[in-house]
Amino acid sequence: MRFQPARRRKHLEPDIHIPPDLPAVIDRAWSAASGLPGFLTPAEARFLGLAAACTPAAGAIVEIGSFKGKSTVVLATVAQYYGLGSVTAIDPHTFDNPELAEHRAAPGASSYDAFLHNIRSAGVADSVEVDRAHSTDVAPRWARPIRFLWIDGNHTWAGARADFDGFMPHLVPGGVVAFHDALHLFPGPIRVFVEEVLRSDRFGAAGFAGSIAWAQFRPEDGARFRWQRSLLERRASRLLPYVEGDRKLRRIEKLRYKLVRSRIPHAAPTPEEWAALLDGPPQP
Q1: Could you give the CA distance from residue 274 to residue 49 in angstroms, rounded to a whole number?
Q2: How far apart are CA 114 and CA 259, in angstroms?
Q3: CA-CA distances (angstroms) from residue 93 to 5, 17, 20?
Q4: CB-CB contact of 101 with 127 (8 Å)
Q5: Mean pLDDT, residues 121-128
Q6: What topology does CATH give the domain 23-279?
Q7: Which of 155-159, 160-164, 196-200, 278-282 has the least mean pLDDT?
Q8: Can you tell me the mean pLDDT for 36-64?
């Protein structure tokens, strides 16, 4: 079965078609990925499956940061079923992500062999284009349009900003960018999301799904969504002082951080809710 976007409407994007079998396909994807090592929750995996299947744009699905393939399997299972092409998985497999620091103990440790084993076992190896390299080395030679950009690489501010700056020029209008771990104590994902996405009229609808921060690229009419983004930005920006300088939070600071974070809406949207958000801005 091949997913075909529906007719174009008067706004930027075509109608957001939600395949009736999408829940079953995502269930299958999560079943294949759930037992793999990684930091993806079931709700986050469902959002990735939704974005992969229903983002109303044409282009590649690009994953920056694969580790042992948990999110890769989710994305590739959905892409394979709906005939959306291969998922490009970019990762040097050298544990550069601060989230993976504990795995650096063994000299020369790599997640590459486990990654290949896992995508093969899931039956999606033919739907994954593996680029074993640092994203900063891939970006200068990348020349294809991107419809869904999944940033889950180096979580420092410099790392997340480099991934965003390197690949955003290829995100097509109507495409979606998403950052993992934006609601954890890493400075990169949340800061880039607040400063470069929520404060920019190049983007339309935006939100959180678990710790995933996402937004649709709307360079022509993003200003229509300014109210929705501004409301989210006021809440999310309160996290920034807590992640400055990669400092460790003390007990009271950590409690305050968790309180601020709890006030940010982060329940994963249903497919219908997500389609409604992308369809047009809510009224204040």
Answers
A1: 12
A2: 37
A3: 35, 35, 36
A4: no
A5: 98
A6: Rossmann fold (3.40.50)
A7: 278-282
A8: 97
